[in-house]
Amino acid sequence: MSILKKYHLYILSLIGFFTVRLVLEFDGFYGQDSYEYLRYTEALKDYYLNGTDPGDYFWPVMYPLISSFFSLLIDSKWVLVLISFGSFLGIISLITKIIGELYPAKKSATITNLYVLISFCFSPYFFRSSLIGMSDMLACFFAVSSLYILLKYNKYFQLKWAILFMVAAVAAVMTRYASAVMILPMGCYFVYLLLAGKRWLTIGTSIVIACLVLMPHFLIRGVGSLNFLGHSWLTNWNPINFFAHSFATHDGFQEHSFSNLLYVFSPFVHPGYLLVGSGLLMFSKFRLKNGAPWYVVAGVFLYLLFLAGVEMQNMRFFVIVFPFCVLLFYPAFVRGRNKLPRVLFSSGVIVAILLQTAYFTYSFSKFHKQQALEKSVAKKIIDMNLKGPIYAFSLDVALTNRGVVNEFKNLWSTKFDKFELGSHVLFNPESTLKQWKGRSPVINWNKLLAEYQLTLVMDFGEGWKLYKIE
Q1: Which of 108, 325, 379, 434 is deepest in the core (most CB within 10 A)?
Q2: Is residue 3 predicted with pLDDT exceeding 70?
Q3: Distances in whole angstroms, Cα of residue 306 to Cα of each of 180, 297, 313
Q4: Structural domain boundaries enclosing 150
């Protein structure tokens, strides 16, 4: 019983993981991004074994790099997801310890475990992210590790903590570039501690460690190492986007219910992250003294401010900052526990857990449905034994990774002057025409309709159809 009590957070998480993985047969891959991480993991693995050039890669290399080493031992698909889930378990452990460091007067093992249970294990979007082969959870783990290690260094001033901080902080940025915004205040405080203490050996060692962690990025990316500085998030960042809720970008046209300035409060109050957040606001008191360190508050503020100026919205972007938001709310949770009647507080916790479980089921069903579609389309195309290329958009990356051997010609990346007769096109007019109006996918589709005869070969459902070009 003592083991169950001590490790119940991890046991519940493991039950959830294996239920999704084995019972629901969700392998952690859907859409396009996760398959790109998988592709480059396999490319690096092939490089180790056969010397084949892995080619270029747009995103930070840390996630596929770490995954590629473990993929020498077990299947890459398992590795990528296990890293995400392992990062999730690590975050739970670290947050529990950080709460003890930041709020020693308020810390109670029972209250802390209950808060972590609600905030992480039953957080629909955050827990869902731990089941997917994407870099968000690993970047989050490195960011949370940076905070924990910085607290230790500020307490003991030992060289080992300085080294570990540089490893974690730089690794976070090399896993997801945007985490640099949140890491920056911690980095500034770390530099201040080094300079104020005149710790020249530690400064020199930290610089060397940072260079070593950065080295794989420059070795793999080569001349493209700094291409991320030209990313649209930076070049098109604009305060005007604070008040916008619709955007026309290279990702098409997107329209949302709320402006960016409201959207960025999601990790505090959105039911997909923290259902009890809106209630905790009533018990919140902003205090610099005896509260979270300024560099935690500043990191959260800068990161959310940065997202508010980006010309798109995606709930996935809050995964990295969410644990820091949870830390800021811990005193409010304790205050609510002390002020509310015991029955009311307990009832609220139970209702919150039930509602967040229901919301997880709802939100995860979309991912599961998307993956089921990808598997079904891939199997049917393989069974048809089609000849020639397939012109496609959106599903092409998934189908390649699920065994379709046909060459795919992407309708998004190229405006085609002509199409090969006898080939096929896989398209979803229902979901594409509005979002991609005036863009390559719709331009190519309209050209096909105007200049060629399209014969329906198969309707896969959900709007996806395969046509033969004649």
Answers
A1: 325
A2: no
A3: 11, 14, 12
A4: 2-339
